[in-house]
Amino acid sequence: MTDNTSNSKWIGDGSEGGKLDVTNSSTITFASATQGTPFNVRLDAPVADSYYEVKVVEGSLGVGLVTENGFKPGWATRGCFYNGNITNGIAGLTIGFGKYISEGDVVGVYLQRVQDDAGGKCNIIFYINGRCLGAGFSLDDKNEKFYPCLHVSGSATVTYSVPSSPTVFMREQEVHNNNDPYSGDWAINQAFHGPELSVLPLPENSTLKVSFEKIEAQAYRLSVKIANSMRTSFKITGKMEAFDKIAFQGGCMSTRMMPSPDFEKVEQFIESAVDRKGGFQKMIISEDGKLIMSGPTAEMICSRFVETFEPVRSIS
Questions:
Q1: pLDDT (0 to 100) of residue 4
Q2: pTM for this one?
């Protein structure tokens, strides 16, 4: 894509005391008059079916798109923003959509106009450091023009660019940088228990999440969310054929809510499977990317957990 901003300029929302300094349409420094009172700036050139990025040099902000009519002073602006949450400029509409934006992050915004059975849609898709987060908004296409827009409470400096449009539009699995295959979130697909490793039925239409956090070279914190939140830790102590041999370090800490019978059975399975006197004794990532934890009387098979969010349908 060709950068169409060379003859364009950034403009402020008219808020009293808001400051805007732009170098060559690409480095933008802007600030609100006071912390807690937002200031919005936008490019005066609209985007059609296109993509832009900002790299955060300093500060934290919201990044997104706004229509001409939606661009107003301070809290009155109504747009489509990502700042870690999905927001319309005044309220969080989808919480925890991605990481909180901080210095060094590269945030991308893609406006995708599509046709479906219900008519035309404007999908507004967000990216963080090259990872697609998926559509934060999916709005009826009213042939409105959208403008790149930045929203700050405090101050921020970013660099703006228009690289080639992305080719991935669905939410991608988060890549963990702990130099190991286990860190991150997993969804339990199957569980087996007892000396015969019989199938343990899992509750239907439920996601049972297992999370690994590397806390030192060969040690992990293991958290499991069923009805209760459960937590323990273990160490990799060597090899057992192709598997990593593991040893749990203590008991399983748990909240004490009363689960339904189906969830209670799964929680009982987890408590016994992570007991240091029995349960899981080895683990491996299979060739097809599955996590397998196994022992004489317990086995669990998991796939990578990718959280999904329904896009917001209205910003009003």
A1: 47
A2: 0.73
- pLDDT 10s digits, 140-190: 999 999 999 999 999 999 999 999 999 999 998 776 555 688 998 899 999
Nearest alpha-carbon partner for 294 in 284, 304, 306, 309: 284
* 3-state secondary structure at position 158: strand
SS3 per residue for 223-239: EEECCCEEEEEEEEEEE
What domains appear along the chain, each with residue ranges and CATH number? 10-161 (2.60.120.920), 184-304 (2.40.128.270)
Distance CA(280)–CA(274), nearest Å, equals 6
Element (H, E) at 265: helix 261-273
Quote the CA–CA distance of 53 and 48 in Å, as a whole number. 15
Amino acid 54 reads: V
What is the mean pLDDT of the segment spanning 19-44? 91
The residue count of the chain comes to: 316
- Tens of pLDDT along 67-90? 999 999 999 999 999 999 999 999
Angle formed at CA 38 by CA 54 and CA 49, multiple of 5 degrees? 40
CA 15 to chain centre: 31
